[in-house]
Design a protein that fits this description.
Length: 75
């Protein structure tokens, strides 16, 4: 099964949180309420430097995805 790059999620246990799930490598969930990121991957010290740069881009993409989805609901 192929998943989209981003998924929008919520949970009634966290009523004010909105989660974006990034399904491609490196996989993560970001909580847009507090910008907390949980990575599903284990990274080596060598990977961490590259990840810092890539993470910023991916988080911007996740936020843009959320904005696009919300705009579609409002149409």
């Amino acid at each position: 099964m192929e998943f989209p790059k981003f998924l929008l999620g919520d949970n009634t246990d966290y009523p004010t949180a909105i989660f974006i799930v990034h399904t491609h490598y490196p996989r993560f969930i970001i909580n847009l309420e507090n910008d907390e990121v949980e990575w599903f991957e284990d990274f080596s010290k060598e990977d961490e430097k590259e990840l810092e740069t890539e993470a910023e881009t991916l988080i911007k993409e996740a936020t843009a995805f959320y904005d696009r989805e919300v705009a579609r609901y409002e149409e």
